[in-house]
Amino acid sequence: MLFLRGAVPLALVALALVGVPTLLAWWLLGGPLGWRHLLIGVAGAVILFALGGLALGWAIGRLRQDL
């Protein structure tokens, strides 16, 4: 049960992180949903993940300076 409480939300977030940029690329570029849309979605997910990590690192660094 504990595994499901951790794995299911993590899988849903990962799916959303890849799915939203993929669907946005499909909407902007048009045509049938294909590999290029998926690659753009994965690249978008990597960029979003990196930006989130940078923001978190900046916030933690800022917190340590204030102490």
Short account of what is shown:
By secondary structure, this protein is mainly alpha-helical.
Explain how this protein is built.
By secondary structure, the chain is mainly alpha-helical. Helix content is 90%, strand content 0%. It has helices at 2-29, 35-66. Helix 1 (2-29) packs across helix 2. The mean pLDDT is 90.
Secondary structure topology:
Blueprint: H1 2-29, H2 35-66
Helix pairs in contact: 1-2
Show unreliable segments.
none
Q: Beta fraction of the residues?
A: under 5%
Radius of gyration, taken over Cα atoms and rounded to an integer in Å: 16 Å
Q: Sketch the topology as an H/E string, one letter per element.
A: HH
Largest sheet: none
Shape: flat
Q: Give the structural class.
A: mainly alpha
Question: Quaternary status of these chains?
Answer: single chain
Helix count equals 2
Mean pLDDT: 90
Distance between the termini: 39 Å
How many beta-strand segments? 0
Helix content: over 70%
Structure characteristics:
mainly alpha; flat; 2 helices; 67 residues
